[in-house]
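Protocol step 4 of 5: obtain the predicted structure for the target chain.
Materials: sequence only (see below). No template structures provided, no constraints applied. The aim of this step is simply to have a reference model before the mutagenesis design in step 5. Sequence pasted as it appears in the construct record:
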Amino acid sequence: MRLNRFLAAAGLGSRRHCDELIAAGRVTINGKICTNFSAQPAARDHVKLDDKLVRTAPTLTIMLHKPSGFVSTRKDLHARNTVFDLLPKKISRLFNVGRLDAQTEGLLLLTNDGELAQRLTHPRFKIDKEYEIALDRPWDPSLAPKLLRGIVLDGQRAKIARLLSLSPTRLRVILHQGINRQIRRMFHAVGYRVKRLLRIRIGNLRLGDLPCGHWRALTRHELRSLEGRAPASPRSASQELRAPTAK
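Step 4 output (structure tokens):
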């Protein structure tokens, strides 16, 4: 097992983050700093991060119905409630897969599986993240093409992949990106304030009836689905607007 994968399996973050730890010279194998990304620790090797022994743990992925008012981080400098405050102390070394801002509710995944986290967050995999939003006033459908074509945020083009109107003030949107506060900022750019934002789906995994503030471990079938090894659920295509396909 390559070193970055070994570190990710120990719950230290995504493989990309583990690469950064290795490059910074913070990882040692048997007392020697290792910056070789291709190194493969043997079963009896002692791998340490900042002089702390790293042990791999059984993989665990849970889904959490994040409430509003909780931040998606383990520690917060402003002493706000974090999503890890909602979990039992015995569940350790998990990290969140992507983030939901403090006011956003809904489906959040936490895992110690770095490969799964990489698949779900890297833009090249185009994993659906589906949200329901409530706006401060009735939606003007003529603005949809602008959101589908994209708006520049933080130097990159932010797009909504698909958009569906549920009522005059309620929409369902699907993203493939993960730009900071993307939905709120995009709708603000066209003159709307998002009053409520709820994530209801990642890939084929749906929030369902999981109560707000509660969590559960994913089933084997759900994990296979997220990894792309299970059949996709059928989707309704009625009244759904899609981003134009690049030619």
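Step 4 remarks: Helices lie at 3-9, 15-23, 114-121, 144-149, 182-189, 220-226. The longest helix spans residues 15-23.
Proceed to step 5.
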